[in-house]
């Protein structure tokens, strides 16, 4: 007789696959790193195969691991759907969600998919705009929930930090050879722009703000054209771009804190459930202080 899958083991396995790290997965499943490692070992022993390849820097799924991940997600989604159908009342209504386009594409798609599965009768309206534009919309109750970069005026419940990285084209180093350095920046008033400019100034790098855009696509177009380097959130960097850094003479940029903020009119179950799902799926502990070990792959 084949052993039965333990959903708790599958949940931990999926968390490790998503985080790319035992340490980060331990935070999301509220267990110690040692307990997570033992659960993965137990699952591998049960299946008689290796699910992850490991070295000092990387953690990647094996072919059996990729196969199991697909089934694990389906099993976990089905469990959550069944729980919601039996325990929670049928939820109807409408949620207006605002977020920058890079956060929407890179981070919120899985949240929307899961929420729509659990609450199929809730209508979701999406407003893509930069954080500086979403703040006033939130205050005017034009949107219910904003998933945004925190600044002095726009605060909320902390969800995660996102690294900012420099990007360019791997086969076109021309912008890096120019002086002053041509840089594409987000619009004035944005925290991402402020952090980027502060990093350049602190490193005493001569630059010119060659291009400015409120849109991720606008900044990506300057990279594609080979006319500037830009700083993006790591989660939004396309595979075709090269991540640049100290080896190219570019400074480290302070990460962005992402929060979920709510309008006054969002005090209703549909919004409560959506925020709960968002925080559960995306919450990441703040990174350690400078000098601590980051990205432990054990």
Automatic annotation (TrEMBL):
Domain of life: Bacteria
Statement: the UniProt record of this protein carries the keyword Transcription regulation: yes
Residue intervals passing through the bilayer: none
Keyword Signal among UniProt keywords: no
A family per Pfam: LysR_substrate
InterPro entries named among the record's database cross-references: LTTR, LysR_HTH_N, LysR_subst-bd, WH-like_DNA-bd_sf, WH_DNA-bd_sf
Record-level Gene Ontology MF annotations: DNA binding; DNA-binding transcription factor activity
Keywords: DNA-binding, Transcription, Transcription regulation
Domain (HTH lysR-type): residue spans on this chain: 5-62
Family the entry assigns: Belongs to the LysR transcriptional regulatory family.
Name of the protein in its database record: HTH-type transcriptional regulator HdfR
Organism of provenance: Paraburkholderia caffeinitolerans
């Amino acid at each position: 007789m084949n052993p039965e899958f333990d959903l708790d083991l599958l949940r931990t396995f999926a968390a490790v696959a998503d985080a790319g790290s035992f340490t980060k997965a331990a935070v999301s499943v509220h267990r110690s790193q040692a307990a997570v490692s033992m659960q993965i070992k137990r699952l591998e022993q049960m299946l008689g195969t290796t699910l992850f390849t490991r070295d000092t820097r990387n953690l990647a799924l094996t072919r059996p691991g990729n196969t199991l991940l697909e089934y694990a997600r389906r099993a976990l989604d089905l469990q959550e759907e069944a729980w919601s159908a039996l325990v929670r009342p049928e939820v109807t209504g409408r949620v207006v969600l605002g977020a920058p386009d890079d956060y929407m594409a890179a981070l919120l798609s899985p949240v929307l998919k899961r929420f729509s599965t659990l609450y199929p009768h809730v209508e979701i309206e999406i407003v893509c705009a930069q954080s500086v534009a979403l703040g006033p919309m939130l205050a005017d109750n034009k949107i219910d929930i904003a998933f945004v970069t925190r600044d002095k005026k726009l605060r909320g419940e902390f969800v995660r930090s996102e690294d900012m990285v420099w990007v360019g084209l791997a086969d076109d180093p021309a912008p890096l050879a120019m002086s002053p350095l041509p840089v594409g920046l987000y619009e004035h008033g944005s925290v991402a722009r402020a952090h980027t400019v502060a990093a350049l100034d602190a490193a005493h790098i001569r630059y010119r703000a060659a291009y400015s855009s409120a849109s991720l696509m606008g900044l990506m177009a300057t990279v594609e054209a080979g006319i500037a380097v830009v700083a993006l959130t790591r989660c939004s960097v396309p595979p075709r771009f090269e991540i640049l850094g100290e080896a190219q003479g570019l400074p480290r940029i302070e990460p962005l804190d992402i929060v979920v903020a709510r309008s006054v009119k969002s005090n209703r179950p549909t919004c409560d459930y959506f925020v709960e799902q968002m925080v559960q799926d995306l919450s990441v502990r703040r990174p350690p202080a400078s000098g601590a070990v980051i990205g432990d792959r054990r």
